[in-house]
Write a structure and sequence with these properties.
Layout lengths: L20 H25 L7 H11 L2 H18 L10 H11 L2 H14 L4 E8 L2 E8 L9 E6 L1
Antiparallel strand pairs: 1-2, 1-3
């Protein structure tokens, strides 16, 4: 079965004014869709039909297939990103709130660190809040690189 552009869990204008409907439509409807279409073409050409997206990503990374990796990983990264957004403001609770307090001192300090990480590296990429073992940390990955190929459990990305 071919990969599909996931249906967003909110209306395209639900994140305004932070993300306008026009911006969301451009990045989701054009860029994300292009990653899906290109990956499906590569998967067919390379005989990888029936594989999970994470399997395709890992295969591409291990085999050095940059075109397949970049497109497949961006499907995953973008899907994770869109589903991490909500029009409703929510505060961390429970164990996550405790881990944030322990690792960063406060939610505000975490947000500052995540923004600094995401904007402080050269070129394209993603800022990530990840679970690394039993510790949460902020890191960045360049271009299409993704936690899927590492031992990180992603919690949030920007």
């Amino acid at each position: 079965m071919a990969f599909e552009l996931p249906t967003l869990p909110y209306a395209k204008d639900a994140l305004a004014p932070t993300i306008s409907a026009e911006t969301l439509d451009f990045h989701y409807g054009k860029h994300h869709k292009a990653y899906v279409d290109k990956t499906n073409g590569f998967v067919t050409d390379k005989g990888l039909e029936g594989k999970k997206l994470s399997e395709v990503i890992k295969h591409a990374k291990e085999s050095g297939d940059k075109a397949l990796f970049n497109n497949a990983a961006q499907i995953w990264n973008h899907s994770f990103y869109w589903f991490g957004l909500t029009p409703d403001s929510k505060e961390p609770t429970g164990k996550l709130a405790e881990m944030i307090e322990k690792s960063f001192g406060s939610k505000e300090a975490l947000v500052e660190k995540l923004i600094a990480e995401a904007t402080g590296h050269f070129s394209n990429g993603w800022g990530w809040l990840v679970l690394d073992g039993d510790e949460i940390k902020v890191t960045s990955l360049h271009d299409a690189d993704t936690p899927v190929v590492y031992d990180y459990k992603p919690l949030l990305t920007i």
